[in-house]
Write a structure and sequence with these properties.
The complex is a heterodimer.
Chain A lengths: L16 H7 L15 E7 L5 E7 L1 H5 L3 E6 H7 L24 E2 L5 E7 L2 H10 L1 E6 L6 H4 L15 E9 L2 H7 L2 E9 L11 E6 L4 E5 L4 H12 L4 H9 L3 H17 L6 H13 L2 H15 L7 E3 L15 H13 L3 E4 L2 H7 L6 E9 L5 E11 L10 H11 L8 E9 L15 H17 L3 H8 L8 E2 L5 E2 L5 H12 L1 H12 L3 E16 L3 H5 L9 E7 L5 E5 L8 H13 L6 E4 L18 H28 L6 E4 L2 E4 L2 E7 H10 L8 E6 L5 E14 L5 E11 L6 H21 L30 E4 L16 H18 L13 H7 L7
Parallel strand pairs in A: 1-12, 10-11, 14-15, 20-21, 27-28
Antiparallel strand pairs in A: 1-5, 2-4, 2-6, 3-5, 7-15, 8-13, 9-10, 9-12, 13-14, 16-17, 18-26, 19-20, 19-25, 22-23, 23-24, 26-27
Helix pairs in contact in A: 7-12, 8-11, 15-16, 15-24, 20-21, 21-22, 23-24
Chain B lengths: L6 E3 L4 H10 L3 E4 L5 H6 L7 E4 L9 E3 L3 E5 L4 H6 L1 H6 L1 H7 L5 H4 L4 H7 L5 H9 L2 E6 L2 E6 H4 E3 L2 E2 L6 E8 L5 E8 L9 E9 L5 E9 L6 E2 L1 H7 L6 H14 L10 H26 L1
Parallel strand pairs in B: 1-3, 2-3
Antiparallel strand pairs in B: 4-5, 5-10, 6-7, 6-10, 8-9, 11-12, 12-13, 13-14
Helix pairs in contact in B: 5-8, 10-11, 11-12
Classes of the chains: A alpha+beta, B alpha+beta.
The structure holds flavin-adenine dinucleotide (FAD).
């Protein structure tokens, strides 16, 4: 018999369970699905950034053979509800809008009509036949225009074009600034770029006599399900009231009881902040109340056969964009319900580039109060975000502003800090979550530290080392609230990075290369990330939100003796089928192939608000699996103890066989236990282990990135001869998978800084609608990435921290810092994140600015 | 991004192909499809008739004739790239082909297709300009020759009539003491160039520069030659000094058009940098051949 496998999977680079299926073409993506009688949808979209719709004539399109239906804005408004704001944050006004534009388009690509036809070809032919008369309006293409007095207002009920404002102070900011030797200021700009997963968005609304199944490439099936239910349950209110007063009385009661329990449990956390957000919203748009009431009634009264069951299967990447239910999704479902027919919509690349979602367009003015010896004292940040025309559902810029506010000081000993933030509307696509949506806190802070170091004549690493919390100072708290526990090892990652970088050798090479027209640079950046964060992290961002972060998970002993791990996580490239199976297999003492990870179907998985995002897969999914599997193990051992007539405490599991320690010859298999349970008179429920995992002590993931760049000063082309990441994510479940996540993130950071830009012109015309215009780096442009792992020891059981986002959080700062280092002798300061060759030569003074 | 409907013709002979072009109003030749198909998928091009010349093997040839290398309409980039005739007889074309997209694209795309498409950022139109290639246009009415200088008329626009096929392109045989280089900068490996240069230089008996051709692509709506810079090189001793001087003239003269990927100033500057680099490379290549 083999050695026990228990405890042997976690920590090893087990081959990915997913790969055989995906690499042999056996994956099941939305694009692969076909169901009986399936029709196809395409959207007519606005060519204008801002215009009123004067008239739509779809008659000719409607007559085209193969066209089933064309639904335009007004009809869509009649059969749907607006997207009602769910996360109401103080200072945030969220305009109400419907799946299709009704009388006004607010961005290029705004959907105006959905065409349903027998094929996508016909649908696109029909789109060309629809005539729309537009009356162009002045456009708002950028922050300067949005905030200009007299600028066109995109949402009539907003304060100008300002949709969100917030302000917070920590410590005595004025006093600290007054006490400093100097204050150094700079303004930084980061550009719009976008997620661009290999697979675009897409959904199939499958209508069957018994239920409506909404297949979708969605990062969060449950969230999508409820947003869609709210958007499409638009029966007249009176009908809903009648239903709830009569046959549906129990639903109302059950809801009331549930809501009361929820609120009672969390009454300490909920409250003030939510009320303020609600008041702010209703003050701006009193109709919010009416719509909320209607949506609430409708959803409660809804015929459950029309409430979609959401099923997500294989997903070709998302990076955040598929965590936002789309207006197209709601339009698609509404059309399917109207026509009682299954309809599929696959977003094409041009649509995805144009309206799929964009991120990180932010301007941040930073002031640092510092003493001449390099002691950092105070930090002030004033940020403006451009959230585009339509806010992302269910949360967007304002939520990420909250994370930025909390994370901005990093792991440095600032004594005081203030942050102001505003989000403005523009005639551009929506601002969505993109891999570390708050990442500009790291970019701006780490960029600014280099600026400060240079002004003080210190080296960037010296300044960081001098001000960063060392392990001897832990635990402590960030100025903004969250605890930095003893495992917070940001400084250790920096020290290790300095050691492997070989700065002295680099400086020698740098001096030499200059003689040949090559400018070398080195850049550091250090960050920590709340993945999942300490227990006091979420509430520091948004009071009350911590209570909603729990991760449900159920493990089941199936009749054949295999174990199912049923998770609300929604893998889209993170390898959950492998990593969660590793954790479960170790807990249960079974082989990996005895464990199956089940996800994506709201009929099978437990409700979760979040799905996969925020690098929660490892820490929350992994932790939940660990404890749920352990619960199942206990139950299995209980049963086996009876069957073996042994003492429960004497049992152990070896390779899936349960036996008395030291007596492996007499054993019971998982299948035998399952059989006993299944055939027991009276109860046929399988054994399960379930948790609502709150993240336990949680903790931080941290890393230091070191970028080396080589700039050809004749052409402005930048290559990256070396790139180093030193990271500490606690216990590595699967090192190869961790490294894959880190590499992918760094690659996207390289893309952001040197290649990718969702460009608009000054009239908000979109200019990057193909992959010839929106440049994604290929394998040829991405350097080898050297990764070093630190694993701060801990006796915490689920000591997993998330790694999904970090690569992209750390890289823009390291890269832009390296570019500045290369150009510093020319007096160049880098204040923008996007540095294509033209910009490099402009900054270096080789060519005149455009 | 689905194509509109169109009628597909797959003629078995060149005559049949020309007949379709003559009889149908809105007919386009489909060669390798590497430019046309994406345009149709984006519904930017919506021809009603496609005339697929993919089976016309008689158009798939590379021949060395008295004073030129002839390339037929169906000759793929990859076939020309691999051809010894092209390498020795038309080295500037050979130098360009490796820059055209990726190898996979070159196995489908054709030399004549690229020329007929006349993308100003493409390599081959510049090669044709630099070498003074001759275009053979054929229709049911017969055949005519178009010199390169007249062939390219604007952005994606050529002297071909709608009923004409570009049947062949002829590259003059390469002189002995001449060098060729194609240098370009593209944002990513395999991309169309931001700016590129097809450079040819030949030496007279004294070893000074007897002639030079500098054809730039990616700088505007057409590939262009910069005569001032070419002339500045005449009778000069080949070397860094003369090349750099030509580069400066190019930067001052070329007046490139900017876009999101490179400003006008950037492209002007790069055209100069490439001049210096391209001439040096072209000069070095002379030794390779003699
Ligand atoms: C990803 C990608 C990258 C690329 N990168 C580059 C690059 O870096 N540089 C570059 O130069 N090109 C590049 N190309 C384009 C490629 O070179 C094409 O092969 C070429 O532009 C067109 O050749 P084709 O045979 O495919 O023509 P098609 O696409 O079949 O036709 C193009 C046009 O020419 C017309 N046409 C074709 N043949 C004839 C003929 N014999 N007579 C009259 N009209 C004709 C067609 O009607 C059509 O209008 C790239 C293409 C792709 C897909």
């Amino acid at each position: 018999m083999r050695e026990s496998l228990a405890g042997s999977f976690v920590g090893t680079s087990v081959k990915r369970v997913e790969d055989e299926r995906l690499l042999t073409g056996a994956g099941s993506y939305i694009g692969d699905l076909k169901v009986e009688g399936m029709a196809h949808a395409a959207f007519l979209r606005s060519p204008y950034a801002h215009a009123t719709i004067e008239r739509i004539n779809a008659a000719a399109a409607q007559r085209l053979p193969g066209v089933i239906d064309i639904i335009t804005g007004e009809e869509m408004q009649a059969i749907t509800n607006p997207f009602v704001p769910l996360g109401m944050i103080d200072g945030l006004y969220t305009p109400l809008f419907w799946p299709l534009a009704i009388d006004r388009v607010r961005m290029v690509g705004d959907p105006i009509a959905i065409v349903i036809a027998e094929s996508r070809y016909i649908a696109e032919d029909a789109i060309q036949l629809i005539e729309v008369d537009y009356e162009p309006l002045p456009t708002v293409a950028n922050m300067a225009e949005a905030t200009r007095a007299g600028a066109e207002q995109i949402w009539p009920r907003a304060d100008g074009n300002v949709m969100f404002r917030t302000e917070a102070d920590y410590g005595d900011v004025d006093a600290v600034f007054a006490s400093a030797d100097r204050v150094i200021s700079e303004t930084f700009e980061s550009h719009r770029h976008s997620n661009q997963p290999m697979e675009t968005r897409g959904s199939l609304a499958e209508v069957t006599p018994d239920e409506v199944i909404f297949h979708s490439a969605a990062q969060n099936s449950h969230g999508l399900r409820w947003v869609l239910a709210m958007a499409t349950s638009s029966e007249p209110v009176l009908d809903s009231v009648k239903e709830l007063a009569g046959p549906g009385r129990d639903k109302l009661k059950a809801f009331g009881a549930g809501a009361k329990a929820f609120i009672t449990e969390r009454k300490d956390d909920l409250g003030d902040a939510d009320n303020k957000g609600f008041i702010h919203q209703v003050r701006h748009d009193p109709t919010t109340l009416k719509h909320l009431g209607k949506v609430f009634m409708n959803v409660l009264a809804q015929d459950e056969r029309r409430r979609p069951r959401v099923v997500a299967d294989d997903i070709g990447g998302a990076f955040g964009v598929k965590g936002h239910p789309g207006r197209e999704d709601a339009a698609l479902l509404a059309a399917a319900l109207k026509l009682n027919r299954s309809i599929k919509w696959i977003e094409d690349r041009n649509e995805h580039l144009t309206v799929g979602g964009m991120a990180r367009e932010e301007t941040l003015s930073v002031q640092v109060a510092v003493n001449d010896d390099g002691e950092l004292l105070g930090l002030k940040v004033d940020m403006t975000m451009d959230q585009g025309a339509y806010p992302a559902v269910p949360f967007g810029a304002a939520t990420f502003a909250g994370i930025m506010r909390v994370m901005m000081p990093g792991t440095y000993r600032f004594k005081a800090y203030s942050m102001k933030a505003a989000a403005i509307a523009s005639n551009k696509a929506k601002y969505v979550a993109y891999r570390g949506p708050w990442a500009n806190e790291t970019w701006v802070r780490e960029r600014m530290l280099d600026v400060v170091a240079r002004e003080l004549g210190l080296s960037p690493t010296e300044l960081r080392l001098r001000n960063m919390y060392g392990v001897d100072e832990l635990p402590t708290k960030m100025l903004t609230g969250p605890t930095l526990d003893v495992r917070m090892s940001a400084k250790a990652t920096l020290e290790k990075a300095i050691e492997v970088a070989g700065i002295d050798d680099f400086r020698a090479a740098q001096a030499k290369a200059r003689e040949n027209g090559h400018l070398l640079g080195i850049g550091f950046s250090t960050y920590h990330e709340g993945a999942p964060g300490p227990p006091d992290y979420a509430d520091a961002i948004l009071p009350g939100s911590g209570a909603m972060m729990a991760e449900p998970l159920t493990t089941v002993l199936e009749a054949d003796g295999t174990v199912s791990v049923i998770t609300a996580q929604m893998p889209h490239g993170q390898s959950h089928e492998t990593t969660l199976a590793q954790v479960a297999a170790d807990q249960l003492g079974v082989a990996m192939d005895q464990v199956r990870v089940i996800f994506g179907d709201t009929a099978k998985t437990d409700f979760s608000l979040l799905g996969t995002g925020g690098s929660r897969g490892g820490p929350m999914g992994g932790g939940a699996t660990l404890f749920a599997a352990r619960g199942l193990r206990d139950r299995i051992l209980d049963e086996a103890a009876d069957m073996l007539e042994a003492n429960r405490g004497d049992l152990e599991i070896t390779d899936g066989a349960i036996h008395v320690a030291g007596v492996p010859s007499i054993s019971k298999s998982f299948a035998e236990v399952a059989e006993v349970v299944r055939t027991r008179p009276g109860s046929t429920e399988p054994l399960t282990g379930s948790v609502e995992y709150d993240g336990g002590p949680g903790g931080w993931v941290q890393a230091t990135h070191v970028a080396f760049v080589d700039i050809d000063i004749e052409t402005g082309f930048v290559t990256i001869p070396r790139y180093v990441v030193v990271e500490d994510c606690g216990e590595l479940i699967n090192p190869a998978i961790v490294e894959g996540q880190v590499r992918g993130g760094v690659a996207q950071g390289v893309g952001a800084v040197f290649y990718e830009k969702s460009a608009y012109d000054d009239d908000a015309n979109f200019q990057a609608g193909t992959f010839m215009d929106y440049l994604i780096p290929t394998a040829m442009e991405i350097p080898d990435i050297e990764i070093h792992h630190l694993e701060t020891p801990s006796d915490i059981e689920a000591n997993f921290r998330g790694v999904g986002e970090g690569g992209m959080i750390g890289s823009p700062a390291a890269l832009t810092n390296a570019v500045e280092d290369a150009l510093a002798h020319l007096g160049v300061r880098i204040t923008e994140q996007h540095l294509p060759p033209t910009r490099i030569l402009e900054l270096a003074g080789v060519i005149a600015p455009a | 991004m689905k194509m509109p409907t169109f009628t597909y013709h797959r003629p078995a002979t060149v005559a049949e192909a020309l007949a379709v072009l003559a009889s149908e109003d809105d007919a386009k030749i489909l060669a390798g499809g590497q430019s046309l198909i994406p345009l149709m998928a984006m519904r930017i091009g919506q021809p009603e008739h496609l005339v697929d010349i993919g089976r016309l093997d008689e158009l798939d040839y590379i021949e060395r004739r008295d004073d030129h290398i002839a390339v037929g309409a169906l000759t793929r980039h990859a076939a020309a790239e691999d051809s010894a005739l092209v390498q020795t007889g038309a080295p500037l074309l050979a130098a360009a082909l490796g820059h055209v997209g990726h190898r996979a694209i070159r196995t489908r795309g054709t030399v004549c297709g690229s020329l007929a498409h006349a993308d100003p950022a493409a390599e081959l139109p510049a090669v044709a300009l630099a070498t003074g290639a001759t275009f053979i246009a054929r229709s049911t009415a017969g055949e005519r020759e178009i010199p390169a200088a007249d062939f390219f008329q604007g952005y994606l626009d050529t002297a071909l009539e709608p009923n004409e096929m570009l049947a062949e392109v002829r590259f003059p045989l390469w002189p002995d003491r001449a060098g060729a280089a194609v240098v370009e900068l593209s944002r990513r490996h395999g991309d169309y160039a931001l700016v590129g240069l097809a450079a040819a230089i030949d030496l007279d008996d004294a070893g000074t520069i007897g002639g030079a051709a500098l054809a730039f692509f990616g700088v505007g709506s057409l590939a262009v030659r910069i005569a001032e810079a070419e002339e500045s090189l005449l009778d000069k001793t080949p070397g860094a000094e003369a090349f750099a001087a030509a580069g400066r003239i190019v930067t001052e003269t070329i007046d490139a058009v900017g876009d999101n990927h490179g400003s006008a100033a950037y492209r002007n500057h790069i055209a100069g940098v490439l001049t210096t680099r391209g001439l040096a490379e072209a000069f070095d290549s002379i030794g390779d051949r003699v």
